[in-house]
């Protein structure tokens, strides 16, 4: 286990489940385990009132619970305002042991920050089977990283093994495991049969050092990508959030060069980009938790979607510079922008984006 | 003044201005030189509550961005000039906030100036107005015509057509192409 836990809570209904058994077996002995009634989890795991950083504390309190709502849903960032990528989200966990200063979970999970993993996660496989049964012939890209990192804690949960086994046998589904870790050991011995892609959020060293606490270094992420590629997985990369700090353009181009030196352009399934965006509430929470992080003090202004974003010419110029470098790589790498309108997509790539379902299928098929 | 005296004066000024406790706490959390420099400016320019809050927030952000102290920012020539120049306290207060904003958003300010000078260079006739997106928060340029006759409309459309290269340049700047 690469991340520290202060405590583990097991709902009574999940005691004895395969996931709880695995986790408790892999847990260091000094981590206290408490069994709680199913309807008392929230109260039992709430950090002490007056805790200095309840959100940070919540990250180190794991709850093994039963998910009572559907696992599968459209990406919450989807909106008619934006050109979307057709990503489907499978929520198998909620929260993340890493602590990026800009992370939207600081707002999204502010009231319930414990790290939840769902013991009944295999129920999600029924939902996925229903999805493909109801849409025969279509392909879907499904990711587990909306409310959690896909691989953090995989060394104790081993959920990735179940997922890879399941997706490897479903022709029309592609699993995306998105991470900022290098926890890939479980993946290396499996055969994904071309249906699993592992993706990394990549940031320059300056952002990693300033903002991405407890994550693997960019170099380690790229090295991990190389390793899973060699093990038969597809790989993709997210330059998201793209942060327009002084020197960003040079640093991002160097990062792309470093990436392409290790992973050939034709081996990259896709690249996404998305500028740093923060609601006023998130911006307040992030700055209060990380007051010294210059990455949170960029030249951001309140945009029409009520999020703070880098002012438009600077943001678009950065997108365009990166897109240009990728175009020059010699092979067309599929690329899209996250949470940007179609007009921005067109301005950056020179063509209007396809419909979300079409993009989703294209990214799923590779 | 020693640290206790400075803090007592800060508390007194904050109480007089009804500064929110969160902002007072931020002020008191600064290093001593920064607390004192901020107090000095707040007294000399007589910043009102909102201005004081904005100044504190902007100064904090500049300090974080540039890895400097707030005292270091306030000691810059452009700031000292504003504080030391003659003129009313309100005009100096607004000049101070504008100068701080320029330090906080250097590229945005530069870009806004460049685009405004492009707009001015078009010398568009009365009746045509260009509205830039607020704080360059989008890439959308609003062009509006105000006319009362068909002849006037024709004249303005011709003027717009003549300005096409300049307008194109402005649109490209808004889209980050320049």
Folded structure, characterized:
- The complex is a heterodimer of chains A (366) and B (178).
- By secondary structure, chain A is an alpha/beta fold.
- Chain A has 15 helices and 18 strands.
- Chain A has an 8-stranded mixed β-sheet. In chain A, strands 2-1-3-8-6 form a 5-stranded mixed β-sheet. Chain A has a 3-stranded antiparallel β-sheet with strand order 15-17-16.
- In chain A, α11 (248-262) runs parallel beside α13 and α13 (312-327) packs across α14 (342-349).
- The longest helix of chain A has 16 residues, at 312-327.
- The radius of gyration of chain A is 20 Å and the shape is globular.
- Chain B is mainly alpha-helical and 178 residues long.
- Chain B folds into 2 domains: 3-104, no CATH class; 107-174, no CATH class.
- Chain B has 10 helices and 2 strands, in the order ααααααααββαα.
- A two-stranded antiparallel ribbon of chain B has the order 1-2.
- Chain B is elongated, with a radius of gyration of 22 Å.
- At the A-B interface, α13 and α14 of A face α4 and α8 of B.
